[in-house]
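Bit of a strange request maybe. I'm writing a small parser for structure token strings and I need a real example to test against, not something I typed by hand. Could someone generate the tokens for this chain?
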Amino acid sequence: MRGESKGETVLTWVTAKRLFLVLCWPLFSVLSPVGAIADDWPAYLGPHQNGISSETGLDLDWGEEGPPLVWRRRLGESFSPPVVAQGKLIAFHRLGNEEVVECLEASTGESLWNGRYGTNYVDRYQYNGGPRSSPTIDGDRVYTYGAEGVLTCWELQTGRQVWQRRLNEELGAPQEFFGVGTPPVVFRELLLLNPGGPNGAGMVGIDKRAGETVWKAGSCGAGYSAPVVATVAAQPMAFSLTKDGLLVLAPGTGRILYDFPFRSPRRESVNAASPVVVGSRVLLSAAYEVGSVLLQLEDGGLKTLWRDQEALQSHWATSVFDQGNLYGLHGRHPRDAVMRCLDWETGRIKWTSPRLRERLTFIMAAGHFIAMGEYGHLIVFEVNPERYVQTAKVRVLRSPCWAPPVLANGLLYVRNETDLLCLDLRKE
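Reply from user aminoacidic:
Good idea to test on real output. This should exercise your parser:
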């Protein structure tokens, strides 16, 4: 990869012009001479919770060398993707027996502050013991939800801990297969979470300023997908794919609006891909021989528009909707992994890629998908409903890479268990 250097935080611009762009990027992102659009990525799956970036002016034609490396930083163990807002990147990782929330300068990788607290989390399957869920930036606050279920609020500018709760311990929520993996989702003055607590605490709404519980709902277990907030028929709704299935709630009160069982009969299975909500329809997908279903929200309940066990089995990568088509990664194991394009209305498979031999997580930007393969390959392919067209592939990291890529202000952030890279996608 071009410009790669050793060390924790190293600038690797190959020309003085690139250094100038970094220092002046806040100005250029507003007054771009070529009309490029830049945006932050403050939460899991981006500003709209759908894996879609509005950014333009991206250079996705790298050749065999790959995009230029801006900086590289060694972190503690974690599967958590970073978030970026207001020129700051928040990384969530583990060092020794502490979970660490670290704020970096997004354009240089310089550490600005870090906060930490003790953890005793041990993974049952010998995966690493770091955090799984993505942080969330909301205004002047950062929210993190650690592998043991410790929910913390931090000041974005200073790193001061505002409040903290050992939420899962308080609720008596059991440790699921891989610890806590769902990020905090903001709805107005609340944080929405799926801790999977018993006695009606499957979902909770937490006051984001004070940290107090506002409501509890459902007896569902904890899933690994992020709740998605959307407005349907002028009513805000929270769509959560829990361990047991879909729960649709009124996010302000926790009132359950719809409930749809969706779970593999196999005990050792998880729901991990987030719901895809388009208008009054919601798509669910899971591996472990579950498949996909498209549901219509109606006054009398949920209507199944189509259901197919074989068309798309999303293990953990959330699919993306675009112009009547659904793009998703199908396959539980690397040997079976393929990308597919489905007709949204019918579930018909429009195309299947060649075998990828690694599972991907991906986001959509500038008419392309930018994907991170679990074996460290950065891959670009077209948003194309007719066929799979791959335009770039380069290895940038060691495996495993299970966090989705993050795109903010022309810079792409990708990580494996211990290394975080910042890559330049901006056109000069």
